[in-house]
Amino acid sequence: MTDTASHKPPAITPQVVAAHGLKPDEYDRIVAAIGRPPNLVELGVFSVMWSEHCSYKSSKKWLRQFPTTAPWVICGPGENAGVVDIGDGQAVVFKMESHNHPSFIEPYQGAATGVGGILRDVFTMGARPIANLNALRFGDPQAAKMRHLVGGVVAGIGGYGNCVGVPTVGGECTFDSAYNGNILVNAMTVGLARADRIFYARAAGVGNPVVYVGAKTGRDGIHGATMASAEFDETSEEKRPTVQVGDPFTEKLLLEACLELMATNAIVAIQDMGAAGLTSSSFEMAARGGVGIELDLSSVPTREHAMTPYEIMLSESQERMLLVLAKGREAEAAAIFRKWELDFAVVGRVTESKKIVATFAGETVLDLPVEPLADKPPLYDRPWTTIVCNSEPVPASPPGIDIGATLKRLLATPDLASKRWIWEQYDHMVMADTIARPGGDAAVVRVHGTTKGLALSSDCTPRYCYADPEMGGRQAVAECWRNLTAVGARPLAITDCLNFGNPERPEIMGELVGCIAGMAEACRALDFPVVSGNVSLYNETSGVAVKPTPQVGGVGLLDDLTTMMRSAFGGGSDSIILIGETFGHLGASLCTRLLAGRDAGPPPRVDLVAERRNGDFVRKLIDRRVLTACHDVSDGGLLVALAEMALGGHVGAVVAKPVDAANELAFWFGEDQARYILTCKSADADAILAAAGEAQVRATKLGSTGGRDLTVKGTKGISLSELQTAHEGWFPTYMAAPNQ
Amino acid sequence: MKAAVIVFPGSNCDRDIAVALGQSIGSAPTMIWHRDTELPPADLIVVPGGFSYGDYLRAGAMAAHSPIMREVVARARAGTAVLAICNGFQVATECGLLPGVLLRNSNLKFVCRDVHLRVENPFTPFTQQYDDGEVVTFPVAHHDGNYFADAETHRSLLDNDQIAFRYCDRRGGLDTSANPNGSLDNIAGIFNANKNVLGLMPHPERASDPALGGNDGRPMFESLVASLS
Amino acid sequence: MKARVHITLKPGVHDPQSKAIASALKGLGFGGFDDVRQGKYIEIDLADSDRASAERIVKEMCAKFLANPVIENYRVDIDAT
């Protein structure tokens, strides 16, 4: 498969260096760091360790702006996943990661192995995965291959998660031609662990055995980590197979075996062999522990004949882990892995050398100091330009536009249409703790055996980030915080997945810098630190980049699940109250996209003080159990949110625009932030309005629930069944149409 | 009542059924690892949902040939109650405990949602606490739940009252739009001829806790406790 | 004219299904084999009566749609029946 299979490795020419994705000055840096030219195995190791994917070389400078600590944070970024205290000796462990490029090339397996990788990042820390989420960004629905990509990605995510037996409880899915050549597949896993039994990837204890467990190593995805950092061109589909086939069955066995071994105290350190396989796991574990590791590559279990040291070091075969065990515990650990029918092999030991030394058939094939590889990659302060906020005036809408008809059309747009077609293919109920299923604001899973719940949400609005990166970054965090708040949870922390184009272009760097600044600001204002994350750059084909997509995955805690709020109307004759200020902002809104056929204007302003004040007020009301439903107002604006509540509860409503408000269209479809719709028993409405006044929160009574229609006073009502058909119909109709 | 839950590599609803059963029985069932050939005395054996052996080759095919299943089949033939849910139902048809097969869903997609079921035979140890024709709601979550049997087998299922549940609408009507997977005659679950084995695709254990959205599965476990204790 | 298409994972691509089938066969006591490969089999009834052009069309079907050349190989047999 590679010419390195022959015994004589090729000389290190500039072409070989370039083929490894390393720039000439990076190569010079390697030679300086180790005091000699690297051999081919070593060059391969540098190429993956210094890839954008592993080293964060373009983004690190900016990522430092994120707040990463809080009294409830047990472990922030830098480990396999973030860890947050949820009381009672329990911790929640979570992370999000991208699998964009592989999913474009082979949607089913690319998405499936993305789920597998993020599951391992979480259970490697000692947590049992309890929920998966995802964020999917597809191109124009009518673009070539798009249906095939949607179908494949959804089936792949389901195929893997369903088989492993972890419920997929939530996510996002939108369409935009900016993703025609680069779809985004971001997957998030949330796990539950004992707070005093968190496992870290920090090798320690000179002489301790280094152990390989899981599936055998094949020639899978050699240089996948480099691929994940390289821009696409038309020949990408021709490139050699860098996509792996996922094996969720083995993953399930690996999960159970690791958790069984973790219940003993035999493990010193553990890390998933994900992208960059044995290379990144050994170097990162050694770096974190300040030790060295000696590896005998001949003892690595292989699936294929005559694998070379180069291939063994760089293979990205899935469903594997590298462990450091306490000396003398090998037999006990081996018995557990044998029970689960998984490979187990002692492949090395911890040394004090601070070097990774690998031998193969008695010969040293790699001898590298740990520090320059793992801790001192080249860091770039790439040039960037400030992105000027889109100030294009929002085109005037035709006079006398029908509000009801516009609502119906909006609900049938790809972004707002029901995603039931997707989430019914995911087992969202296995583990029997899913309290709030997909389709609401945040999903809620019960902490098994308790009355506590975890609220989970995944959010980002790329069209806002594109129009104004800083405001868009703020909004992604704020919307996530709001979604968690709307079910009554106390937001704890986020993970992120920053998907951008080519950072060597100053305007792309400008998007990254702006989004990070906005996110960091929102995280600070909302006490919502970043505990883990991933950066995916070069999401760009032939010079066309994706919209900046800093996906945010948030976790919140409900101390008492019986207070949990749902977004569906609870019944008839409840009062409907709007919390927050409505300015009628139509810039960058879905209404403008629908009516003008393009995104025009700046995104809505995110006032973080108002965001916090309004959210804290809503959470208090939920705690006091005076509400019957609660929903955040986001994409599509107020009337879309009301329609979602009505469709969810099969109960209609009659609402009216306050006399002093903006024009009809702007009032009902503007996307102003920091807003929630509440319902309550009509007898409680005045008390809630009064409490809002005291808290200096803007609250407006909009109307009341009841009937089978959604009616805006002064216009003709629309029946729920008509709205339902529009909302539910788009996705299945789209997927059933013949492939282009 | 003593219950045992068989755990295959790849089972993933074993904990869910153990929790639901435990609440009805009052004590936790015994979990039996697939490689154990010794099956302790039990009044009820559960073959749970999941993806045993990854469902590679055909759903349930590999588990059906595991040593523990020989023992389960022997116990079932001797009269022990066996509840086979979802993947368990697939295993039970593959090893001949129940007639027919479960094919890929007719739309070829995995389906996870609540479905309505009509109770077709409330005169068994599994269903005695339901009413005849009662409509209940259970979730389904499967890729291969499309029940098929040849005409002769189908006739004998009808003649012997072996159909346990049919997919239906909320009023009990048997139209095809209520059928989530294309099953023959809207069949969601069947008994063996002796009515001591029940196989069904829907998950009663996911409908045994009001917090999860429904409690209609609870009467099945209470029927079992009442008839087997 | 009938085309018979066999699609299998490329050698070297991890094939968990085949691995599981092989280990189950061994578990059932079958021996005397080294490796198992599984895949898809597709039959296509063709209107075309020219063998060469039929083969060309079916191969194009494979390359563009039936198989994913990133991970799969295919073999096309044309029957004159």
Q: What does this protein look like?
A:
The complex is a heterotrimer of chains A (740), B (229) and C (81). By secondary structure, chain A is an alpha+beta fold. Chain A is 34% helix and 23% strand. The longest helix of chain A is centred in the last third of the chain and has 20 residues, at 506-525. Chain A is globular and about 85 Å long. The two termini of chain A are 34 Å apart. Chain B is built from 6 helices and 11 strands. Chain B has 229 residues and is of the alpha/beta class. Chain B has one domain (3-228): Class I glutamine amidotransferase (GATase) domain (Rossmann fold, 3-Layer(aba) Sandwich), CATH 3.40.50. Chain B is globular and about 45 Å long. In chain B, the strands form 2 sheets. A 9-stranded mixed β-sheet of chain B has the order 2-1-3-4-11-10-9-6-7, with helices on both faces. A two-stranded antiparallel sheet of chain B has the order 5-8. Chain C has 81 residues and is of the alpha+beta class. Helix content of chain C is 35%, strand content 28%. In chain C, strands 2-1-3 form a 3-stranded antiparallel β-sheet, covered by helices on one side. Chain C starts with a strand and ends with a strand. The model of chain C has no long low-confidence stretch (mean pLDDT 87). Chains in contact: A-B, A-C, B-C. The interface between A and B is medium-sized, with 31 and 30 residues.
- Unreliably modeled segments of chain A: 1-7, 236-240
User: Largest sheet of chain A, if any?
Assistant: 7 strands, mixed
Spatial order of strands in the largest sheet of chain C: 2-1-3
The CATH C-level class name of chain C = Alpha Beta
How far from one another are the termini of chain A? 34 Å
The CATH topology annotation of chain C reads as Mth169, Chain: A
Query: What percentage of amino acids of chain A are in beta strands?
Result: 15-25%
Counting DSSP E segments of at least 2 residues, the number of strands of chain A comes to: 28
Which value, in Å, is the CA radius of gyration of chain A? Answer: 26 Å
Q: Name the structural class of chain A.
A: alpha+beta
- The end-to-end distance of chain C, rounded to whole angstroms, is 6 Å
Task: Give the overall pLDDT of chain A as a whole number.
Answer: 93
What's the arrangement of strands in the largest beta sheet of chain A?
8-10-7-11-9-12-13
- The total beta strand count of chain C reads 3
Helix content of chain C: 25-40%
Q: Helical proportion of chain A?
A: 25-40%
General form of chain C = elongated
Provide the CATH superfamily of chain C.
Answer: Phosphoribosylformylglycinamidine synthase subunit PurS
